[in-house]
Design brief:
The chain has 687 residues and is of the alpha+beta class. It is 37% helix and 20% strand. The strands form six sheets. Strands 14, 15, 16, 17, 18, 19 and 20 form a seven-stranded antiparallel sheet that branches. A five-stranded mixed sheet has the order 2-13-10-3-9. Helix 12 crosses helix 13. It is globular. The mean pLDDT is 91. It binds ligand D41. Ligand D41 binds next to strand 3, strand 8 and strand 10.
Length: 687
């Protein structure tokens, strides 16, 4: 170890600035400046230098976000300004009453008052104190007067500035806000916990609170926590802002994230409109909210209104219906997916959860049932959040003695009676029936006939079900032996539709190798993998002949996918089906693997909000197949943004930056045109 020279010190300063700027761009502006790889490289370089020269380590170094060694416990921290609670308003009349009361106290017409509205984030509240621009301490809300000092944990959040941005930070500022976890991150966190036997959380709020109270900050550092500022509790010297919204704008300059739906409105109608509008957006936001926080915007009027007990008179929380409801578990049924995975589904006494009637909820798998300790007849809590499938989160009240029934996971497939298998170390149980199982067969046929596979026009879900229920088609090859006369026996199949279907089947026989491989429905083999296999091996026979090692040599194929591919082609019934398909005239050009047109290559797209005609994953897959990259955030380089209902900051950002925005209808028509290969690739151009 040597004394750091000036060059090393400069490098440290530069790396820190670049890393903090990258954090800010990524976590606050949603506009990444560095790729993950570049970020990691710079962070490792900084860690390396600091490792060699520990005297250079400062508490605000980005390396310190990774987490310091475990603490003994958390110190008590007394809040200099108490963290108040909020009164609630449960309907529009209570909003009007709040406006009227505020007006009366201020001796003016409440309907002329300006209010700052924002979503009430359903996370856990914390307070951050900055001294001379540097994060000095952070604490939980606790009972409002005393919280727990969790500074080291809060430092691990990349949306918590370690140093305030801007040339002249205030001498002292205390910023309060909510720590949250987005739905997709929360689902991934729980899914991993279910696989690895870790702690499964009931909802993002519990996950956020639990993660912040970890004694080991290195654990907190792995949790996808976000800090969203909503209040300045103290600021010295007084910057002279006159409104709450002005202070919030100032916070963004200091490097904080504030909710992008924050808005100033006037009078009770303005508030009611905002609440209705946000209620409609709620399911598409991608994070939990439980209402709207309404604040008198004028800070002088806030002071004039003051407090009652422990809640301000100048603010109120309009509450949305709860996302969790209690109901009775009436039964459990089992669904069989395309790959045989058996999913237990809770059949519930129907209950309205946040505006939607829920009668079914996911129980994930056998381990989850054991973890919940749930029995039929129990009263259970159901959570429905956004577009995530409703889930059973816990037992609230066990069934009365004598009424409880154990949930017995089937050892035989509920559809075909085949043995249910569960591979050691895997959470999922599967039906071993393969294409013998009608449930798997239906899904496999749907996949086979799908637009991105053999694209058999007119062979929809209902028709497939009928063909399989009548046992007319046992393997996909049998589809090509159907004749029009036979098809007219099916309900709603006239002569014309039957002939059309036969013609569509004939047309579908001419395909490409990647489509054919994809159509086979091999586990974990999506379009991209099918493409890679086709490109790498050139012919189907070469793929069939490949061993595990040869398969692992293909781009983006790891041992698990290689194993699935290898196993698939080892099974004689699969090889027979392939032979039969070829015998029926299914063909493709072997040597010259036809590349799909990639009109979007080099472009980055962003999907935001909910789509109705497809899942976001599907939209992503279709864009990727056309050569596009799909990113999580908008930047100047984004080629286009697809915005469904509930689109939030990404849409605003796209509009600010002049990035073209498509709604779902436009997106679909472009997609279809690109897939046909007949339209310009620039989203800005008219179709
Ligand atoms: O999003 C929130 N959860 C939120 C909570 C918010 N956006 N603003 C809030 N503002 C306040 C006051 C009016 C006291 C500054 C709050 C809360 N309080 C709050 N959350 C929990 C207790 C109080």
């Amino acid at each position: 170890m040597s004394q750091p020279d000036a060059k090393t010190r400069d490098e440290v300063t530069r790396l820190r600035a670049e890393l903090e700027d990258a954090n800010y761009r990524y976590y606050v502006l949603d506009d990444p400046a560095l790729t993950d790889a570049e970020y990691d490289r710079k962070l490792r370089r900084l860690q390396e230098i600091e490792g060699d020269h520990p005297e250079l380590v400062t508490p605000d170094s980005p390396t310190q976000r990774v987490g310091a060694p475990p603490a003994e416990g958390f110190p008590e921290v007394e809040h200099a300004v108490p963290m108040l609670s909020l009164d609630n308003a449960f309907d529009e009349d209570e909003i009007r009453a709040f406006v009227r009361r505020a007006g009366e106290r201020l001796e003016r017409d409440g309907e002329t008052l300006a209010f700052c509205c924002e979503p009430k984030l359903d996370g856990t509240a914390v307070s951050l104190v900055y001294e001379n621009g540097e994060l000095a301490s952070g604490a939980t809300r606790g009972d409002g007067r005393t919280g727990e000092g969790i500074t080291t944990n809060l430092r691990t959040l990349r949306s918590v500035p370690l140093k305030l941005r801007g040339a002249t930070p205030p001498g002292l500022i205390e910023v309060r806000g909510e720590v949250t976890i987005a739905h997709d991150k929360f689902e991934a966190l729980n899914e991993r916990a279910r696989q690895e036997g870790g702690k499964v959380f009931a909802n993002p709020r519990n996950a956020a609170a639990g993660s912040l109270r970890q004694l080991d900050p290195r654990i907190t550092a792995t949790r996808p926590l976000e800090f969203n500022a909503y209040q300045v509790a103290r600021i010295e010297p007084d910057p002279g802002e006159e409104t709450h919204s002005g202070l919030m704008a100032r916070l963004t300059d200091y490097g904080f994230r504030i909710n992008n739906l924050l808005q100033v409105v006037h009078g009770s109608q303005g508030l009611i409109d905002y609440c209705r509008d946000l209620g409609e957006k709620r399911d598409g936001l991608g994070y939990d909210i439980d209402g709207v926080v309404i604040k008198v915007d004028d800070l002088r009027l806030q002071r004039e209104l003051g407090f009652v007990a422990r809640a301000p008179r100048w603010a109120v929380a309009f509450k949305f219906p709860a996302q969790e409801q209690v109901t009775r578990l009436n039964d459990v049924e089992y669904q069989v997916g395309r790959t045989g995975a058996i999913t237990p589904v809770a059949r519930l006494e129907p209950v309205a959860v946040a505006g939607v009637t829920v009668a079914n909820a996911s129980l994930h798998n056998q381990d989850e049932i054991a973890r919940l300790g749930v029995k039929i007849g129990d009263r259970v809590s159901i959570r429905r959040a956004g577009d995530v499938i409703p889930q059973v989160v816990r037992v609230v009240e066990p069934a009365p003695a004598g009424d409880a029934r154990d949930i017995v996971f089937p050892s035989q497939c509920p559809v075909c009676g085949s043995e249910v298998e569960r591979i050691e170390g895997e959470a999922v149980a599967r039906c071993s029936g393969g294409l013998y199982c009608p449930a798997q067969r239906k899904e496999a046929f749907r996949h086979f006939a799908g637009r991105r596979a053999l694209d058999i026009d007119g062979l929809g879900e209902k028709l497939i079900d009928q063909l399989i229920e009548r046992d007319w088609v046992k393997t996909p090859a049998a589809l090509f032996r159907l004749d029009a006369a036979q098809l007219t026996e099916l309900p709603r199949m006239g002569r014309k539709s039957s002939e059309n279907l036969v013609a569509a089947l004939d047309k579908a026989k001419r395909t490409t190798l990647p489509r054919f491989i994809y159509a086979l429905g091999i586990r974990e083999v999506g379009e991209a993998t099918a493409n890679n296999l086709a490109r790498h091996f050139g012919t189907l026979d070469a793929i069939i002949a490949a061993d595990q090692a040869a398969l692992e040599a293909v781009e983006d194929i790891g041992p698990i996918v290689a194993h699935h591919v290898h196993t698939f082609f080892q099974q004689s019934h699969n090889l027979e089906t392939i032979e039969d398909l070829r015998a029926q005239g299914v063909r493709w050009e072997e040597a010259a693997v036809e590349e799909r047109p990639q009109p979007l290559s080099g472009q980055t797209w962003v999907l935001t909000g909910t789509l109705e005609s497809m899942t976001r994953d599907e939209g992503k897959a279709r864009l990727t197949a056309l050569g596009a990259k799909v990113a999580g955030s908008v930047s100047k380089k984004t080629a286009g943004v697809v915005a469904g209902p509930g689109a939030g900051s990404k849409l605003d950002k796209a509009e600010q930056m002049g990035v073209p925005v498509l709604d779902e209808r436009e997106f679909l028509s472009r997609l279809e045109a690109w897939e046909r290969g007949d339209t310009p690739s620039t989203p800005g151009e008219a179709t």
